[in-house]
Amino acid sequence: MTDALRFVLGGRVVEVPQADPAMTVLQWLRANGRCGTKEGCAEGDCGACTVVLGELDGGGHHLRYRAVNACILFLPQIDGKLLVTVEDLADGPELHPVQRAMMENHASQCGFCTPGFVMALFALHRTGGGTDDDTIHDALAGNLCRCTGYRPILDAARSLPPKDPATDRFDRAEGGLATLLRSIARPDALTVSGQGRVLHQPKTLADLSALVLAHPKATILAGGTDVGLWVTKHLRTLPEVIHLAEVAELRTLVEGEDRLDVGAAVTYTALLPVLERRLPALAALVRRIGAAQVRNSGTLGGNVANGSPIGDSMPALLALGAELVLHRDGQRRTVALEDFYLGYRRSDLREGEFLERVLIPYPRPGDVFATWKVSKRRDQDISAVCAAFRLTLAEDGTVAEFRAGYGGMAATPARARALEAALTGGSWSEAAVTAALPALDADFTPLSDMRASDRYRAAVARNLVLRFLRHTGGEEAYALETAHA
Amino acid sequence: MPDTALPPVARPIRGGVHAALQHESAAGHVTGAARYIDDLPELPGTLHAAVRLSDKPHARIVGVDAGPARLAPGVAVVLTADDVPGELDIGAVMPGDPVLASGLVEYAGQAVVAVAADSMMRARAAAKLVEVYYEELPAILTAEQALEAGAMVSPPITMARGDAAAAVSAAPHRLTGTLEIGGQDHFYLESHIAYAIPRDDGDLLVHSSTQHPSEVQHAVAKVLGIPMHSVAVECRRMGGGFGGKESQPAQIACIAALLARATGRPVKFRLDRDDDMLMTGKRHDFHVRYDVGFDADGRIRGLEMDLAGRCGMSLDLSNGVVDRAMFHADNAYFLPAARVTGHRCKTHTVSNTAFRGFGGPQGMAAIEHVVDEIARSLGKDPLAVRRANLYGGGLGGSPGRDTTHYGMRVSEPDLLAELIDEIERSSDYRRRREGIAAFNAANSVLKKGLALTPVKFGISFTVKHLNQASALVHVYTDGSVQVNHGGTEMGQGIHTKIAQIVAEEFQIDIDRVRVTASTTEKVPNAPPTAASAGTDLNGHAARLAARAIRNRLTDWVAGHCKVGAEAVMFRDNAVFAGNHAMGFAELAKKAHLDRVHLSATGHYTTPKIWWDREKGRGHPFFYFACGVAVAEAVIDTLTGEYRFPRVDLLHDCSGSINPAIDLGQVEGAFVQGLGWLTSEELWWDGQGRLRTHAPSTYKIPTSRCLPEDFRVRLFDARPNREETIHRSKAVGEPPLMLALSGWLALKDAVAAVGDHRVPVRLDAPATPERVLLAVEAVRAAAKAAGAA
């Protein structure tokens, strides 16, 4: 059995009866005459394929918009959603304010990246994005331009007039679009099969649990920011896929008294406002995971379950003592994250089991927590080294507890137990920390690769502890970000 | 002719030269309507191509099993080198570049087998099924290894003046050293693509994303064994080029053409990003050795320099690239005695190619490093040493110091001193230098650096015959004008500028002028759009073509109105002759009815240039384009991370045809140069395989990499002394080298760790890793110096 996909595009419901579940939204658009959206990399790293998705909010009357990379988004993932591409922005000859701003600021040269920038800015404009530079950079970090040097694009973003609900086309159309989206809302699971592949998209935890049990070899797809590449780059066929982003129970985020309880399908973007309140140090790091398009699709759960040695969230979760709730056939078990990884991209997940929730304890009052990522480029890069530290000092100023999580240093993200042991019980001072640093050599033997040499990784792993020492001493003035002219 | 003094159409023209117009495709860009080759509607039966790449750097091919690929779903044909009907080799200058590997692979990433199937994914899947059997051979991977082995794609040449060795020995001070300068991937957002469409009589139309349609035409004709008149190559626009689409598109187009010929069907070959980065050439990385003698003021007495470019497996354009590195080994500085030797190293890596600056950036990086180290060794501000070495008798130099090491007189030797004075003032260099010293004294973890660097870049192809251009202009009877020229549009705005030039010539609104796709059918035998000379050359040619028509119209008006030709004036969308006036459209119509020919070609050749490569002497450049930059950097000495709090640029765009476009070129080139020198690292593993072949691993700048305070100004006080088109100056490449200021500001910050007392070596790209390792080296050296 296969269902027809339905989504809204150009003010109409589009129905795709026999979709190949592994076809990307970008491939579909370009095959259907919408060539404004470009392929620059097919791996979600350049933003030329940026499109905007609209979804009904909880009340079912208003739309929430988010920019995503169409090149690593499978067509079934947009079932029931509004798809907006660069062709949809202008109203006849009347350009959208974003388009006008780009033209007036001479913000295109070769023009190939331009539709992607227009859509990223459109999403910023729709979400009422601020005009401060930090917000603009956050909105554009996933879009590469090789010609302009960005200044005119930034000026276009800075010059954008605030959205006027009285005249804004998309505001005026919102009621109609919401009606269309309600008309294609799907109460039950979706199954799409074609080209020898099948994709299941359950709506409830019970359905998901049954599907995983019935198809234990299936690939679990959350945001697709990594799985997408398995298809576009490694040409893997993925005969069975279970997509969990539409499972309502997995999209919940519970802000508890002493911990965050994060469903496996919660995107980074949904997580960020809560982190800003509860764990600002982690929020700062999450803003450097991928870029807006990736955070709009990607999930913490996916990052954890994937178990990549360079996943950026894990060092922090290890330092904080995060736990995972694993689910199999209605049964749950809780494991500490540090016990979850068994080796390179190997985890403790059993057959028929899936990651349901991530539990993140807050640092205790008085604890100091910080996490840093070091990479060649600040935005949308993968760590050479990522480290996170949590320090609890005893009354007498000695180290009661010190937890350090590292990424990029071994086959899996891991705690630096020798370092932790060397510091625990001693004084928290430059002398003590310096004396303890050689313990890191017992914890890790890093590799050399295209991101960094072993020597650099070892040096940075040590120096980040020194940075943390200064941080606990309140020395913020040294941060690069604040060292303005 | 009506006797009205002012016809209704007469009003000032919109968009002649010097107007800051928007790019001609701006509306198409922001709406997605501007079409690139992959956006062209596909003809029925279109096939898609993919290639099987070598994963060995150097090996004999002992067998190819394409059987499973031939049987894969959707596959129409699988081709190897044996199936090429014409010539196999498509080397741009000399043979060495087989369109498909034949018997031997010489880099990991070389195309061995080509597949056409009914979809791109199926073609790629089928290409993976091809089995190639190799017998591995020893591989040379770096320029240094090639120098040792004497492996060269072309013999070394030397440019020399005086007895450099003696001058170095006799000088009061001397420094020797080496430097590594990394390469760079072009990372145009549109990867390589060609769409080959069979026509009648065995002819072929090829849509190619290329800076050099004529070369693509030549190569396609060669591999198919058919005359050039049977091959048409067209390019409306590229999604970026930067030199990467000068010689490289030929192979892509040839593979599409071969598959189209073999199947009789249209074939599109679009490279996936990874294949693009693995298959196609990049900016040359260089290994530099220097030995310099200088006096107590830091003034260079003699310089011996070896510039060894890693050319890869074939010559491609490497002679020109390494030559240009040698030409710019002086940058802005007078070298009284010099011996500059350029080595063209043959390695088993991808054949490196043109990239914005074409070797100039590497030559300049080398000399700027040397000048910087001279300053450090003397305990001087590097700016003082730069000034002491400038060409010219003006503010910084002395008379007679105005000839390059290859014998060309610098015609505006004082311009750089003027620019430096200006930016030193406007950037507040002196006060900030003091502020930075205070900051560094007060901070142990963060260190700041400051650097001011000049750029003097020679404009012209150093291969003389490329310095020509043609254009074809049609005036239609409604007064609309179509312009075809030999240049190609890659985002740099050449079509906009040339439309402005033609509008200016006819004195009509720019809306009446349409510049068409570049095609070998309208303008034959064009040089590549490269060397920053696109507008210089094609703008002249277009003006000459327009002028030829205007002259005919002038004669016709003079006869018609019975006035002398000198009384005929084109202005305000009209022509005026005595008391007569006529709108341009009316003029075109009437002239045509009176059998005036309204189409013309123009051909331009650059004057004054010559170059004797054997002797290393000549006047290879029509003129120099100049600019200056001041960059401030701050580094974190715990991690090597850094930012650029402020950068000031002042670039000479006097006489600009379009200041908005030129500003975009300056800013864009600077940021691209900064990427080359900072975050863009090409990394090969021990087996000669490039491991940074996609944006996930190869990091070009993002918007946050911009200097936080970025002040860019166009200097416009000195129109070109030479008779360039409207006295403008070429701008495509020169500002890229302004980014050397950023690299040297990082170096200055590293030097601050050792209180500017010990030498610093900071190879490019200065990734956070290289910065941290340089910091550690400086700390160790300072400690050793302190102990001694």
From TrEMBL, chain A:
SMART domains the UniProt entry points to: CO_deh_flav_C (SM01092)
InterPro entries xref list: 2Fe-2S-bd, 2Fe-2S-bd_dom_sf, 2Fe-2S_ferredoxin-like_sf, 2Fe-2S_ferredoxin-type, 2Fe2S_fd_BS, Ald_Oxase/xanthine_DH-like, Beta-grasp_dom_sf, CO_DH_flav_C
Residue ranges constituting the 2Fe-2S ferredoxin-type domain according to the UniProt record: 3-89
Keyword vocabulary terms for this entry: FAD, Flavoprotein, Iron, Metal-binding, Oxidoreductase
Domain FAD-binding PCMH-type residues, every copy: 191-365
GO molecular function: xanthine dehydrogenase activity
Gene3D superfamilies listed in its UniProt record: 3.10.20.30, 3.30.465.10, [2Fe-2S]-binding domain (1.10.150.120), CO dehydrogenase flavoprotein, C-terminal domain (3.30.390.50), Uridine Diphospho-n-acetylenolpyruvylglucosamine Reductase, domain 2 (3.30.43.10)
Domain of life: Bacteria
EC numbers for this chain: 1.17.1.4
Pfam families (alphabetical): CO_deh_flav_C (PF03450), FAD_binding_5 (PF00941), Fer2 (PF00111), Fer2_2 (PF01799)
Protein name (database record): Xanthine dehydrogenase small subunit
Organism: Azospirillum oleiclasticum
Taxonomic lineage of the native organism: Bacteria, Pseudomonadati, Pseudomonadota, Alphaproteobacteria, Rhodospirillales
Gene label: xdhA
From TrEMBL, chain B:
Start and end residues of each Aldehyde oxidase/xanthine dehydrogenase a/b hammerhead domain: 31-138
Keywords of the record: Molybdenum, Oxidoreductase
SUPFAM superfamilies: CO dehydrogenase molybdoprotein N-domain-like, Molybdenum cofactor-binding domain
Entry EC number(s): 1.17.1.4
Keyword Repeat applies: no
Pfam families xrefs: Ald_Xan_dh_C, MoCoBD_1, MoCoBD_2
Superkingdom of source: Bacteria
Enzyme class (EC, first level): oxidoreductase
GO molecular function, one term: xanthine dehydrogenase activity
Name of the protein described by the UniProt record: Xanthine dehydrogenase molybdopterin binding subunit
Lineage: Bacteria, Pseudomonadati, Pseudomonadota, Alphaproteobacteria, Rhodospirillales
Gene name, Swiss-Prot/TrEMBL: xdhB
